[in-house]
Amino acid sequence: MYGLVGTLVNTATVLLGAIIGILFKKGIPKRVSGSVFKALGLITAFIGISGCLCGENTLVAVISMIVGTLLGELVDLDKRVNNVGKFIERKVSRGDENSTVAQGFVSSSLLFCVGAMTIVGSLQAGLEGDCSVLFTKSAMDFCSSIIFASTLGIGVLFSAIFVLVYQGLITVLASFVAPVLTTAVVNEMNCVGYVIIIGLALNILGITKLKVMNMVPAIFLPIAVVPLYDLIAGIV
Questions:
Q1: Which of 4, 101, 174, 222 has the most Cβ atoms closer than 10 angstroms to its Cβ?
Q2: What are the residue ranges of helices labelled H in 76-115?
Q3: Which pLDDT value is given to residue 99?
Q4: Which backbone phi and psi does 48 adopt, to 5 degrees?
Q5: Residue 146: in which H helix or E strand, if any?
């Protein structure tokens, strides 16, 4: 499927960027890398705040976040994804107690996969074979992966797997969900995604320790919540 080309390119750019960042890390003092990491947290917050304004209905976002987070907590996605990160950490860190492999894997996976460009780009690639948005995202993720890997190390490299699976699934399944993906639904999905990115930014800045991955199911809740809200509004 031609639509998967965008995901493959995006995966490759994350891998390349992470490799460059890992090479840079060796020559960067901890004081400098710490400051760069905090700066990245601020930029992540800016991206999240700017993006969440695309929502059209606050109530839909609220319901989606509450129900989606509840589902995520019941399944405990955060623990499962962190376990994957810790498994990788055990394999590559050689007993280093200060290893940031798991943090790098989870944080970068969220940053690369939660947002409008991921959703819209993957849908366009799957429905129309148009990979232009994913190609643009690839360039952005290349730069981000360099910065992330230079501060958090090899865990960012493995997040490319998450990008491949997550974006690939959305692309492949796009044709099946196309009938319900109205403009309103996509806007609310993007809004919720960017709210979650704000949570990720707060974690990066050390302000909170939110289980952000448990909120990810909320991104897909507008597919059901928007039509239900419109139905109820029509009756009332």
A1: 222
A2: 77-92, 101-113
A3: 61
A4: -65, -45
A5: helix 132-152
